[in-house]
Amino acid sequence: MQTTAAKQDLTQTLVERARAMLPALRERAASCESECKVADATIADFQEAGFFKILQPKRWGGYELDPQSFYAVQMTLAEACMSSAWVLGVVAVHNWQLALFDAQAQADVWGGDPTTLISSSYMPRAEVTPVDGGYRISGRWGFSSGVDHCQWAFLGGLVPDPEGGAPDYRTFLVPRSDFEIDYVWDTLGLRGTGSQDVVVKDAFVPAYRTHRSKDGFATTSPGLKVNDAPLYKLPFGQIFVRAVSSSSIGALQGALDAFRAYGAERVSSNDFSKTANDPDAQAVIAETAAAIDEMKVVLFRNFDVLMAQAAAGCTYDLEQRLLFRHQSGHVLDRCAGLISRMFYSSGAQGIYRSSPLVRAFVDIHSGRTHIANNPGSVRRNLGGFMLGNPNTDTFI
């Protein structure tokens, strides 16, 4: 077992590697955006640096570090390119989820190459037919981030209850040979994520290559028989939602750094006023710095709490899970509001595509549209639960 000091040392090393990559990510950001794909060189850099190993089980060569380490790396990378950090966040989290699958499913993916990557689309779009030994599925799924770099995919679907009850939501693990990629990704922001459509036509998925949402919620997944570290006893919803919210914190930090450098020197071409003396600019810089600090503190605190509970074998408190879910869902809204105010304070020169704020502006606003980053639904659910209504969200 790794000591706390060893984990901290490895985390520091990984963050330093991420920071050393920022110049290259900035240089590749334009092509990443124009090609609608994270560069192969970037994925290779992430592999070499060990970023995909952070949440991967040790039995498959992973580091099995805490989520705090993973999100620290993701936020650092996002300072230069939110699309690249988004893809890392989503794809590397799948190494954590695969650890929850049956041991044979893990061997199917990693037995030949433990660096094999998995994409996903959790939309419950599968047309599912139960058959002997598993299921046949067909369908089209959207928003599969980083799929070009992956040899397997997690795809969502509902398994009908033979007794007429509520269907069972499952994630189906499908190899690249069983799906096609439809290149439809042409978006305003997060273009580099390459979140293409995935199409499956009548593929067989053995039962052991499915993962029940109920097991993820109750932390009773079959993979826990071989991966019993506290990391894998965390609720799936808590891990995944942070994978699609945390990159915006890093992107906001990168935008703040750029705006500070720009604002310190800018003089208006019209009234010759200095941005450094603009009360609105001063206010948004201060508020953004404070918000970034607060959001990071809450993120790390929440996983400190969850990891301590997992290690102690405690039952997770439902209201606490709903609160943590709400705090993640609120991140993009805050970041979008703050990047908008910095954008307005940049003046007319700030609207050129060469402005370092422009890409962060469109990427953060695009990330806000993800269903996991909608603060309204999680806010209403938490408030209703605190007033005595039943919980309606299982993705916690």
Topology:
Layout: H1 4-34, H2 40-49, H3 67-78, H4 82-98, H5 103-110, E1 118-131, E2 134-144, E3 152-159, E4 168-175, E5 180-182, E6 196-206, E7 210-212, H6 213-218, H7 236-243, H8 246-265, H9 279-312, H10 318-329, H11 331-345, H12 356-367, H13 375-386
Parallel strand pairs: 1-3
Antiparallel strand pairs: 1-2, 2-6, 3-4, 4-7, 5-6
Helix pairs in contact: 1-3, 3-4, 3-8, 4-7, 4-8, 7-10, 8-9, 8-11, 8-12, 9-11, 10-13, 11-12
Structure description:
This protein is of the alpha+beta class and 396 residues long. The protein folds into three domains: 4-111, Acyl-CoA dehydrogenase/oxidase, N-terminal domain (Butyryl-Coa Dehydrogenase, subunit A, domain 1), CATH 1.10.540.10; 118-211, Beta Barrel (Butyryl-CoA Dehydrogenase, subunit A, domain 2), CATH 2.40.110.10; 237-386, Butyryl-CoA Dehydrogenase, subunit A, domain 3 (Up-down Bundle), CATH 1.20.140.10. 50% of the residues lie in helices and 15% in strands. The protein has 13 helices and seven strands. The chain has helices at residues 4-34, 40-49, 67-78, 82-98, 103-110, 213-218, 236-243, 246-265, 279-312, 318-329, 331-345, 356-367, 375-386; strands at residues 118-131, 134-144, 152-159, 168-175, 180-182, 196-206, 210-212. Strands 5-6-2-1-3-4-7 form a seven-stranded mixed β-sheet.
